[in-house]
Amino acid sequence: QVQLVESGGGLVQAGESLRLSCAASGVIFRLNVMGWYRQAPGKQRELVAFITPDGNTNYTDSVKGRFTISRDNAKNTVNLLMNSLKPEDTAVYYCNSRGAGVVSGYGYWGQGTQVTVSS
Questions:
Q1: Per-residue pLDDT averaged across 22-27, rounded?
Q2: Is residue 47 exposed (0-12), middle (13-18) or buried (19+ Cβ within 10 Å)?
Q3: What number of other Cβ atoms are within 10 A of residue 5's Cβ?
Q4: Computed over its alpha carbons, how large is the radius of gyration of the chain?
Q5: How much is the average pLDDT of 62-81?
Q6: What does DSSP assign to residue 103?
Q7: 74 to 3, 29, 30, 89: CA distances (angstroms)
Q8: How many other β-carbons are positioned within 10 Å of the β-carbon of residue 92?
Q9: Cβ neighbours, 10 Å, residue 90
Q10: How far apart are CA 44 and CA 52, in angstroms?
């Protein structure tokens, strides 16, 4: 049974930082692409960042230079360090795990964690 459990969300002021974590079980973590998505009210879910099994990363343009995704294959965790947060980063953030051959946007999902950035 696959489980992805996110933690670390909360309410912060603009310019502050948050660190999200996702603990995975039931997947061959070291072989999977791990990603973070977010969904703001009234908007579609969007990819924020992903990290491949060998550590390559990719970010959506709006978070480049501010967010850093990392993984710890020994602990089956993926983290998202979010610096210089902006009100437009407010959303529910979801952890995603997918096999290398699975199309982006599919795979397994966590329950989400709320991030709220006040101005």
A1: 92
A2: middle
A3: 14
A4: 13
A5: 97
A6: P
A7: 17, 9, 8, 30
A8: 18
A9: 18
A10: 23
